[in-house]
TrEMBL record:
SUPFAM superfamilies: Cysteine proteinases (SSF54001). Keywords: Hydrolase, Protease, Signal, Thiol protease. This is SH3 domain-containing protein. Belongs to the peptidase C40 family. PANTHER family: MUREIN DD-ENDOPEPTIDASE MEPH-RELATED. Residues 1-27 form the signal peptide. It holds the Pfam family SH3_6. It comes from Lysobacter arenosi. InterPro entries: NLP_P60_dom, P60_peptidase_YkfC, Papain-like_cys_pep_sf, Peptidase_C40, SH3b1_dom.
């Protein structure tokens, strides 16, 4: 889940992707739930933490939900219809000041509420003045050439051009309010502006626009940059992450982390017996990765992706089995707001599951939930609890369930009750004594949907806003 610091829904958004605090139990519930002592999470025992448990519930786990042509058509619709997606190929050869300033000002607005540093001390006004001034908005030229670049290393996207970590309270050390998202090796960007100190670029990626350290971006031609993702043959990372081998000959591709769903070109014609950065490549796939030269320019270098690392020569089929198994590969990973802690947040989590099957999604929950490219079931205050429960109990594996500021993926039904996997800092539910229990899961979590509490009077089901179905 990602919303910018100054959006009005920020507190509510955080409360939900962080799963609420200080909640009171509801007076009535549809069924009695137990909290197993082995997990401390309502309705979940250790057997349900095994993906095979959920795959066994499926009548036809390998049935293809959408084939590659249908997925390609859906991705095309996303780029055509979804206003949260930036079409880099459609940008003009030059960018004007109004366009660039608009991108920056939409994100980098001065914080209106108190912030605290990593020691729990208030961030001084002078510090915030420096952060805001570092944007150097007055230096945006009237017109500039459109510059393209490829990301060469997993890199944080920031609200401002700074690594300063700030928090909403003096006892919070997890949710850095200047953290927006992340980019990955091979991601294309347009470079729109440079910070006052010359160390950061404001970049526009198809799914996000924010600040990134310029050392993680290499500048190239439009064809080099946009053509990289179309190269074939290729490998798709199918594990939670994979890594290239160590090499001292080419540090830029040494032990490089590649996250789930990344597509990297394969140098299929690499001669047998020819060393790759000082090592024979017969036990690995010889792939091609972007590298940043000392002058900031782009070049491509061979690298070795060991055959032991989880990857395939095609995207995974979009099936119930793969949706479940891909989600469970992140089970227990620590929650990472905006992809911090080398992890991911709720919307990043579901995005990377679907990315491993070739499906593109918007970055933020607010955009995912209403995307016109997907099969949306919209809910409103007019929908009764009975209808909401009926919808919940008809949810299918892979359905994405949205409440304000949070998204969950359905993994199956047990006795008519939907279960989900989601990335969250915690869950609130009623214990055996009727009192609210707070399970600080702080990571990728399995749970039933209907007993989760939103606040003292409502459950998650009461606050469902949308269901998105990636289906025909």
């Amino acid at each position: 889940m990602r919303l910018t610091l100054t959006t009005p829904a920020l507190a509510l958004s955080l409360a939900l992707c962080l799963a609420g605090t200080a909640l009171q139990p509801l007076a009535a519930r549809e069924r009695a739930w137990t909290v197993p002592a082995s997990t401390g999470v309502i309705g979940v025992d250790h057997a349900q933490l095994d993906p095979a448990f959920w795959v066994r519930q499926l009548a036809d786990p390998d049935r293809v939900i959408l084939d590659s042509d249908a997925i390609a058509a859906q991705n095309t619709r996303l780029h055509q219809l979804d206003k949260s997606i930036h079409d880099l190929a459609a940008l003009q050869d030059t960018l004007d000041r109004a366009q660039v300033s608009g991108w920056i000002e939409a994100l980098s607005r001065r914080p209106s509420k108190a912030l605290f540093d990593e020691r729990g001390k208030p961030v001084a006004k002078a510090t915030l003045d420096e952060v805001v001034d570092s944007i150097n908005l007055g230096a945006v030229p009237e017109r500039q050439d459109t510059r393209y670049g490829l990301v060469v290393h997993r890199a944080a996207l920031r609200t401002f051009p700074t690594s300063l970590r700030v928090f909403s309270s003096d006892d919070d050390h997890d949710i850095d309010r200047f953290q927006e998202s992340a980019l990955f090796p091979g991601d294309p960007v347009v470079v729109a502006h440079e910070s006052r100190d010359g160390q950061w670029w404001f970049v526009v990626n198809p799914r996000y626009a924010a600040w990134v350290e310029k050392r993680f971006v290499a500048l190239g031609s439009q064809e080099q940059v946009l053509g990289y993702g179309r190269k074939a043959p290729y490998r798709v990372v199918t594990g939670a992450r994979a890594a290239t081998v160590f090499t001292q000959e080419e540090p830029g591709v040494s032990e490089l982390q590649l996250d789930m769903g990344l597509r990297v070109p394969v140098l299929a014609d690499w001669p047998v017996g020819k060393a790759v950065n000082g090592q024979d490549g017969y036990t690995s796939h010889v792939i091609e990765l972007p590298v940043r030269n000392d002058d900031g320019s782009l070049r491509f270098a061979p690298a070795l992706l060991p055959r032991r690392e989880p990857s395939q020569d095609h995207y995974l089929p979009l099936s119930g089995r793969n949706l479940i198994e891909q989600g469970f590969k992140f089970l227990g990973e620590r929650y990472g707001w905006g992809h911090s802690y080398n992890g991911r947040d709720c919307s990043g989590f579901v995005s990377e599951i679907y990315r491993s099957m070739g499906v593109e999604l918007p970055r933020n929950t607010s955009d995912q939930a209403v995307s016109p490219a997907l099969n949306r079931i919209a809910l409103s205050d007019k929908d009764s609890r009975e209808r909401r429960l009926q919808i919940a109990r008809e949810l299918q594996v892979g359905d994405l369930v949205y409440i304000p500021g949070h998204v969950m993926m359905v993994i199956g039904q047990l006795d008519g009750e939907p279960y989900v996997i989601h990335d969250t800092t915690g869950l609130s539910f009623a214990g055996a004594d009727g009192k609210t229990v707070r399970a600080k899961t702080n990571g990728v979590t399995v749970s039933p949907l209907t007993p989760l509490l939103f606040n003292g009077k409502q459950t998650y089901v009461d606050r469902m806003t949308n269901i998105q179905r990636i289906r025909p």
